[in-house]
Amino acid sequence: MALTGIQILKLLPKTNCGECKFPTCLAFAMALAAGKTELELCPHVSAEAKGELSDASAPPIRQLSIGVDDYAVKIGGETVLFRHEKTFFNKPGIAVMITDVMDDAEVERRLAGLEYFQYERVGVTMKPEIAAIKFTGGKDRFLEIVKKSAARPCAVILMCSDAAVMKEALDIIRDKKPLIYGATQENCEAFGTLAKEFGLPLAVIGKGFDEVAILTEKLTAMGLKDLIIDTSSRAVREAFTDQVAIRRAALISKFKPLGFPTITFPCEMTGDPMKEALIASLFIAKYAGIIVLGDITGETVFPLLLQRLNIYTDPQRPMTTKEGIYPINNPDENSPVLVTCNFSLTYFIVSGEVENSRVPGWLCIMDTEGLSVMTAWAAGKFVGDLVGTFIKKSGVEEKIKHRKLIIPGYAAAILGDLEEELPGWQILIGPREAAHLPAYLKTWK
After folding, report:
1. Is residue 406 within 8 Å of 415, Cβ to Cβ?
2. Domains (range + CATH), the chain
3. How confident is the model at residue 54, as a pLDDT?
4. Is the pLDDT score of 89 beyond 50?
5. Average pLDDT for residues 135-159, to the nearest whole number?
6. What is the chain's mean pLDDT, rounded?
7. Residue 398 is inside which H or E element, if any?
8. Which end of the chain has the lower number of beta carbons within 10 A, N or C?
9. Is 95:291 a contact under the CB 8 Å cutoff?
10. DSSP characters over 205-217
């Protein structure tokens, strides 16, 4: 039975040193109990405690990452079957297939697509992250494409069954922390040795659960921990069933040989791009760690990215924007000042309408713990004295000559208290709907 956070805390050094990136040992213990971190992050834990905590500290599904910097993809680490039970933590990586039979123009188009197809929504940049480079027999061409990808901002999957060719590719691109794909019954020891030598994650390719489990046990016995599972199913129904069965085996049955994230290939299940996108959406919901597409276009990748964002946003925690002053349309000392809450959707709607108005303005975003204007007002988090204190501390007074502040129409009730908190300011009640802001701002004075 898994230990509770308090039980884990009793085995920790209780130094509150912060070296694990958590503020206290209690916070670290709670994260361990929830499967959100790993015991190795604590530099002071004793060997005896490590042995006792090994099962409790590790998520039932191994968490690992491929790639580096902004294109690092963290997968696995999940602790629940259903999002509403808690939340999902690590969204699946989305990859595009590139083979050594493609010409330079096609390779460049696909690599460039990983940079081009980026979208911002509620403060989050959504993008595909991974180039899956497949060796089909052209060694020189394969290595040439690997070199191209090494210079691009993306994570990489190296798909090659020849250990000698794989080693040459790894020598080129090891610093980008690629995924080695992959170990089979035939090459298990050779690929396991490569993964251990380069310190990289390894995909395990088996025909069904039994073969995968045998391979993962063999590789973990070699000292490898960062494994990704491919059961080789390329029919939609079978692949979907595999994803669900693997998740249930890891979480409910605690079957460690299947306690790893998975990789799926919708690109090998159909030749129709729209059907491929539909299949990919299935695996975003349940429960792929990496999804490899045959190609990426705006009309196929955008809905997948949006679905991924929606599913992997914590349903118990609203998305927020950082508190502060946001200049829009290059404002100056005579530009209007608006204030609203830090619920991300509110911020992006309001800022978008201010931008569309072409009127320069200062948008002051107040921390209301992610609540919308009406909810924050009802909860006492967007009231006159608090808004006034925020405005005084924000520093916006130093940026303007006038003393006029526009508040949301839905917060008109705070007018009196705000006037008392900000003597000398003229408080203006803006429109209730953000869509009416462009017309209002043109006559705000």
Report:
1. no
2. 5-57 (1.10.15.40), 64-311 (3.20.20.20), 324-441 (3.40.50.11600)
3. 67
4. yes
5. 95
6. 92
7. none
8. N
9. yes
10. E-SSHHHHHHHHH
